């Protein structure tokens, strides 16, 4: 539905920031997400996530970037 598509879009934006802002490569960002969520690679695709899982992605990415900003 429209709401879930919006959450998935926001999750993609949050994850993309990790590599767009130079914290890690794109491949590293997706691997990091997979490890953070404890998912096998085949299940670590935002396009298949529920709204709850998308919220987890957004939260994890925000915590990561906030922590990086504090260190810098």
Structure explained in plain terms:
It is built from 3 helices and no strands. Helix 1 (2-20) packs across helix 2 (26-37) and helix 1 (2-20) packs parallel to helix 3 (51-71). With 72 residues, the protein is an all-alpha fold. The model has no long low-confidence stretch (mean pLDDT 96). The protein has helices at residues 2-20, 26-37, 51-71.
The description of the largest β-sheet is:
none
Number of helices: 3
What integer value in Å does the Rg equal? 12 Å
Number of beta strands: 0
Shape call: globular
Average of per-residue pLDDT values: 96
Poorly predicted tracts of residues: none
| Proportion in β-strands | under 5%
Written as H for each helix and E for each strand, in order along the chain, the element string is HHH
By secondary-structure content and strand pairing, the structural class works out as mainly alpha
What kind of oligomer do you see? single chain
Helix content: over 70%
Cα end-to-end separation: 39 Å
């Amino acid at each position: 539905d429209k709401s879930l598509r919006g959450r998935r879009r926001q999750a993609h934006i949050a994850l993309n920031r990790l590599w767009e802002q130079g914290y890690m490569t794109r491949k590293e960002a997706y691997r990091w997400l997979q490890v953070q969520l404890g998912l096998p690679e085949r299940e670590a695709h935002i396009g298949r996530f529920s709204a709850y899982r998308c919220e987890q992605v957004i939260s994890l990415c925000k915590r990561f970037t906030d922590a990086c900003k504090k260190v810098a």
